[in-house]
Amino acid sequence: MKTTILRRAILAGAIATSSAIGITAATPAHAQFGGIVYDPTNYAQNVLTAARSLQQINNQIQQIQNQATSLINEARNLTSLPFSSLQQLQQQVQRTQQLLGQAQRIAYDVQNVQQVFGSRYKGATLTGTQAQMVANANARWEDSVGAFEDSLKVQAGVVGNIDGARTAMDGLVSASQSATGALQATQAGNQLLALQSQQLADLTAAVAAQGRAQALQSARQAAEEAEGRERFRRFMGN
Q1: 78 phi and psi, to 5 degrees?
Q2: SS3 33
Q3: What are phi and psi of 114, to 5 degrees?
Q4: Which of 7, 99, 216, 219 could hold 147 in an S-S bridge, CB 3.0 to 4.6 Å?
Q5: 11-25, 42-56, 132-146: least confident range
Q6: 71: Cβ–Cβ under 8 A, 6 or more apart, which residues?
């Protein structure tokens, strides 16, 4: 009887042991440290998720940096040039215009030129009385002298503008080289073109004044020849 009970107890223990072994083999391996269960698979997934999140954050930071750089560049491109030579150039042009406006006896005006030439350089004025011819000859001489004086004044004004043009050029070149954006570079280029236009205007004024003086001198000589022929005709006639 006792032998039968012992056998049954051994058989039950063997069955319980085999069941425990089977359950342990079916469950994933875990490590326990002080009561904390460590799951390698879950840990790996958590690390991968954290790495992906960190990469997304880095991408967002890079996008923000790119946007900030773009805004800074746009602000530079919209910044105006701190140097302006426009007022100085306008003053130089006005001085040259004033010198041209001070033309003596014959102005730079088409109607005035036609009127003066009709009264002193051609037509009946060359065949008037002796006193009229003498008066016209003196007036033409004064026209020529005044024109040469006007020409010298304009040339002196143009030469005086050279120093101002040099100062403006130095400032514009320096501003152009240190331009921080497209707008500043464009404005510097526009002001350099304005400086060039001002210099061309001075050159045109000087050429016009010189040409005016030479034209009046040639016209005076032609009028004197016509009067000389008239005087000779009268002398021979008398």
Answers
A1: -95, 0
A2: strand
A3: -60, -40
A4: 216
A5: 11-25
A6: none
Beta strands 36-38 and 31-33 are antiparallel
Taking alpha carbons only, the member of 161, 176, 222, 162 closest to residue 84 is: 176
Dihedral angle over CA of 45, 34, 31, 48, nearest 10? 10
DSSP characters for 117-184?
HHHHTSGGGGSS-HHHHHHHHHHHHHHHHHHHHHHHHHHHHHHHHHHHHHHHHHHHHHHHHT--SHHH
Query: For residue 30, is pLDDT > 70?
Result: no
Whole-structure pTM value:
0.65
Is the Cβ–Cβ distance between 150 and 209 less than 8 Å?
A: yes
Give the chain's radius of gyration (CA, Å).
52
How far is the C-alpha of 158 from the C-alpha of 124, rounded, in Å?
39
Contact 144, 192 (CB under 8 A): no
How far is it, in rounded angstroms, from Cα 12 to Cα 24? Answer: 19
**Residue given tokens 């215009």 in the structure block:** 97
Return the ∠ at Cα 92 (arms to 89 and 98), rounded to 5°: 140
Q: Other CB atoms closer than 10 Å to residue 185's CB: what's the count?
A: 17
Picking from 164, 166, 165, 158, the residue whose alpha carbon sits closest to that of residue 206 is: 158
Confidence of residue 26 (pLDDT cuts 50, 70, 90): very low
